[in-house]
Amino acid sequence: MPKPAKGARLGGSAAHERLLLANLATALFEHGRITTTEAKARRLRPVAEKLVTKAKKGDLHNRRLVLQTVRDKSVVHTLFTEIGPRYENRPGGYTRITKIGNRRGDNAPMAVIELVEALTVQQEAVGEAEAATKRTAKDAAGDTAAANLKKDEATEAPAAEAEATETPAEPAADAADEAAKDA
User: Fold this and answer.
1) pLDDT tens per residue across span 92-138
2) Torsion sign across C-alpha atoms 64, 70, 74, 76
3) At a CB cut-off of 8 Å and minimum separation 6, what does 41 contact?
4) pTM to 2 decimals?
5) How many domains does the chain have?
6) Which is nearest to 80 in space by CA: 90, 70, 95?
7) What is the domain range of residue 105?
8) What is the rounded distance in angstroms from the CA atom of residue 30 to the CA atom of residue 15?
């Protein structure tokens, strides 16, 4: 039998946590954003992400799986007809959690969890252009590094040749110095 994650149960038993998360997910899909405590938002995020992923697939089996969690058929319909297709090209990260400070009554840390807006065609084009710019900059940096390496090798080779020609002269000079000391 599947057991919930270890740790706090958000106010009670495993069944209560499951129902609480189902209600929060329903409200999130119905309104697009909800204000709740940070702990509940963090526990809700993976549940909501998995439900959106199932909605993206859009088949009957996944619809029935989502209906086990989200009991409101109108919300499931919205999830499968509007929210799922909105994130068709997005690989994940459908929700955003924003901390908003503490609640006035009990000083509990609060957060807003919301569905991230799907990228428009213009935003996707900008993202692709930025990625292409980064790639070209990286390639250019790699090309300049390779060119600098070749320049360094080219300057080191004549220096090594010069050292090789000077090396025999140094022992002769050392021998002359020793002869002068002996005399």
Assistant:
1) 999 999 999 999 999 999 999 999 986 667 777 777 788 888 888 87
2) negative
3) 97, 111, 112, 113
4) 0.64
5) 2
6) 70
7) 14-118
8) 23
What is the token pair recorded at 104? 């006035």
Nearest to 69 by CA among 90, 87, 44, 86: 44
Q: Which residue, 118, 134, 158, sits at the end of a domain?
A: 118
Alpha helices in the chain (DSSP H): 14-31, 38-57, 60-69, 73-78, 84-86, 121-182
What span, in angstroms and rounded, lies between the C-alpha atoms of 112 and 103? 12
Task: Decide if 34 contacts 27 (C-beta within 8 A).
Answer: yes
- 128 lies in a domain? yes
Round to whole Å and give the CA distance between 78 and 87.
13
To the nearest 10 degrees (0 to 180), the angle between helices 38-57 and 60-69 is 160
